[in-house]
Amino acid sequence: MQLFKDQVLKVSNSLTGEKEVFKTVKEGYVGMYVCGPTVYSNVHLGNCRTFMSFDMIFRYLKHLGYKVRYVRNITDAGHLENDADEGEDKIAKKAKLEQLEPMEVVQRYTVDFHETLKAFNLLPPSIEPTATGHIIEQIEIIKEILAKGFAYEVNGSVYFDIIKFSESNTYGKLSGRKLEDMIANTRDLAAQDEKRNPQDFALWKKAEPQHIMRWPSPWGDGFPGWHLECTAMSTKYLGETFDIHGGGMDLKFPHHECEIAQAEASSGHSPVNYWLHANMLTLNGKKMSKSTDNNLYPDEIFSGDNRILSKPFAPSVVRFFMMQAHYTSILDLGNDALLASEKGYYRLMDALKTLEKLEPSESSSFDVANWQKACYDAMNDDFNTPILIAHLFDAVKRINLIKEGQETISKADKKVLQDSVNTFVFDILGLVDQDNSDNNATTINGVINLLIDLRNNARANKDFATSDKIRDELLMLGVQLKDGKEGTTFSLN
Ligand SMILES: [Zn+2]
């Protein structure tokens, strides 16, 4: 269903500061790139919020019938400790600290990232490319930028020339910064650098002898600058100009500004039509920070093993909490807010079960089509999930009144209401009925234990054909039985 032909979606474009009607480069197709994590530590909750926001956007675009190619990268090299192209590579530093190969660090935290996002029920992107897998593409872009005169080489490193670029293009248009102000603010720091101007940024950095993550290039052994990978990977998979580029608000400057500069310098095109930025998550009114202990990891919320919250919270409750705020607003997490979200989440899930069992009447006492339109209007207004959720709670109220006999619903309307509520709650907001999944797990465990009993009986009767059949067929279904002194246990693969 190509719903996008009837729905007018508007998105907040950071580039223009306006809410604009969303029009794709190619009809029916959306190319979306979101800056992924630098995999040198466990993914923190603020990042989860960003990825969850773009997951909701991905889900809604798909629901509208677009064919979406969603690219979200993994930064596994080139991200230095500070934005001024100095300090150690974050991954190499962690590798040294933990005496691991850099790729072991990358593997460990990529797995953590995927597991955490899966717990929050995020859909995987269409392509998840890595920086180290695209070194050749990055070198090619540097060559193009050098050939066009927007970069210069110094002592084995290549820098982007902001002053030269600014003669023909506008650097700072995404973050609303003026080059003159940037120059005025940084004049004192310029002295010891090999850059011509402090605003210039590294496209390629020469690797010092002790630097372990290094690749050969026309300028000697080195590694790419952090901003470059996103330009290389987004344009490789989505084309020189694509529809949506997303990321956290903190990436607007310098990262996204530099991406625009690199793309315009190499291809001559503006790379992105709509820049979308997800806002920050705070904890108890303050910025989350590891150094001040005002910090929570997703695992600590699920297990309740933390000093900030009074109890554990299920991933779907946390996701529901995140969806209750607009993705461009700052959201503050705290115990009371999570408790309130938990209550709301279970009220919503209960109403879904009540809705299934409602007895339809001859006619409806409220306008279901109008309600459904209001839900779409909310989502079409820059993915306004808090308004959508308010409409869902309006439906919850109606459902409970129908149950009490104070409102009525026709058979046809009941079907529309059921389909829409399920679509918005599960497909678009990406919630999971946590109760149900717990119940399913209990049922599966019960069935496996029953089969273990039957197998034990068969073995006691020397009916090995049956006992082997049970073991082998369970294994094919991903259930491994282990016979031990204490009886038979199982694990799910
Ligand atoms: Zn990026």
How would you describe this structure in keywords?
14% strand; four-stranded parallel β-sheet; globular; 493 residues; four-stranded antiparallel β-sheet; binds zinc ion; alpha/beta
Can you list the strand order of the major beta sheet?
4-3-9-10
Low-confidence stretches: none
In whole angstroms, how far apart are the ends? 36 Å
What portion of the residues fall into strands of 2 or more residues? 5-15%
The small molecules bound here are: zinc ion
* Count of strand segments: 15
Number of helices: 16
Radius of gyration using CA atoms only: 27 Å
Helix content: 40-55%
Judged by helices, strands and strand pairing, the structural class is alpha/beta
Mean pLDDT score: 93
Main sheet overview: 4 strands, parallel
Shape: globular
Explain this structure.
The protein has 493 residues and is α/β, with parallel strands linked by helices. 47% of the residues lie in helices and 14% in strands. Strand 11 and strand 12 (286-287) form a beta hairpin. Helix 10 packs across helix 11 and helix 15 packs antiparallel against helix 16 (464-476). The radius of gyration is 27 Å and the shape is globular. The chain binds zinc ion. The site of zinc ion has 3 residues, from loops.
